[in-house]
Amino acid sequence: MLVLGIESSCDETAASIVKDGREIISNIVYSQAEEHGLYGGVVPEIASRRHIDAVSEVVQKCFDEANCTVNDIDAIACTFAPGLIGALLVGVNFAKGLSFASGKPIVPTHHIRGHIAALYLTHKDLKPPFICLVASGGHSHIVAVEDYTKFRIIGRTIDDAAGEAFDKVSRTLGLGYPGGPAVSKAALSGDKTKYKLPTPHTENKYDVSFSGLKTAVINIFNINNMKGEETDINSLAASFEEKISQILSDNLVNAAEEFGFDTLAIAGGVAANRRLRQLIEEKAKGKRFVCPDISLCGDNGAMIAAQGYYEYLDGNIGDVNLNGMANLNIDYR
Fold this sequence. Notes:
The chain folds into two domains: 2-118 and 296-313, Nucleotidyltransferase, domain 5, CATH 3.30.420.40; 128-292, Nucleotidyltransferase, domain 5. Helix 2 (44-66) runs parallel beside helix 3, helix 4 packs across helix 10 and helix 5 packs across helix 6 (179-187). By secondary structure, it is an alpha/beta fold. Helices cover 44% and strands 19% of the residues.
């Protein structure tokens, strides 16, 4: 079964064709990161306009790379939630138009579920149940993946997500956008023990809070500036990356132990972080640890097509009334 996946929830316009939820036939991603980097972060109105400019060409390139047409696919999956509402609507409406014109069913697909499905494209033998940390610009969830379309939230961010915190710290330190790769690059030549940063605490031990941690980093930088003292940017970046990585890895490994999961996974943009992967691998001894290929950690159409395949099998079919939703929990039914 061939599924076309369309992703437009933030600042990547992406399309992919995936076979049986496991094999990528074609995968095209158009990133707006360079333009948004001028502003230090994503500008929603600009993102929406660029999706409008790019979506038709991206989908056509996807078909060309797969050497097929819309007549050859079996379903059209699109990200409908969560995300920037204007950006989501571009992809949703394009998918609805293509569905109406071609007669192919449309499959509404949840963005975070898609990130988890990226694991199936890298690890062909992976099957639920397993526990997954989904960390990205807007999300920091620990999710029990009980089946392909059945999820249970164990923990989540109560304020800033990990990726959002990386972006804000990177902007303050003058490292650029997107923040995750920029902070990690600086951290390579820094001393992760130089700056002592707080460990935030939450009522639910598996929830995370990064707002105070982010503020602590910004305060160190600003106070040093006011005093005329130089900040060791690379070491501050390393200290910040280490603290976030320790928190996320501890939560995932501890939750896996408490809830009896033998397989641990990470997904989402922050899953590309070298230090986070290293720490989980060190702490998860005796358990299987899986993560997506680096190319599938960021937003892409392949993850949407992969999850769309399982949503289709579960009977999750949309119609012309499908709408975008800025917020929707992963465990919706």
